[in-house]
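The records we work with from here on pair a chain with its fold. Taken together, the tokens spell out the fold as the letters spell out the chain. The record below shows the convention in full.
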Amino acid sequence: MDTAKYFYRNVIFSKSENQISLIDIYNPDNEKQELEPWFGIVLQLADGQHTIEELFNLLSNKYKGAPPANLKETIHSVVERLAEANFIVLTEEKTELPYYLSMSYEYLDIEKAKKLLIDDRTQLVNEFKKGGLQQS
């Protein structure tokens, strides 16, 4: 894994006490998809401003100099699985998150977030129609 890559979240999340969950901004009362603790930690820290190596260093420091032997492998596995699910995206450069992904659901101005999300989707559709984006 290229630990020099930056990573950012691609989903809206909710934080209730220590539980991180995925949430549908249009139907927040629907059942939330709770994430396992490691997945929640990485998703919450996926702000587009830090590399995977910086993530490892941050989490290593939480263990006061004695991280578990498998910490790096655990982080790599979690990052890979979140990326495969498209919950996070790996990039070569820092990425500024849009407002609706920048913080947990509980802190968002929901109406503002919904409007910006619709605006971004509309812009993507228009770019695709013009041939500016290629289907993968």
User: Anything to note?
Assistant: The beta strands are 6-9, 13-16, 19-22, 33-34, 47-51, 88-91. The domain at 6-106 is CATH 3.90.930 (Outer Surface Protein A; domain 3). The first helix runs from residue 37 to 45.
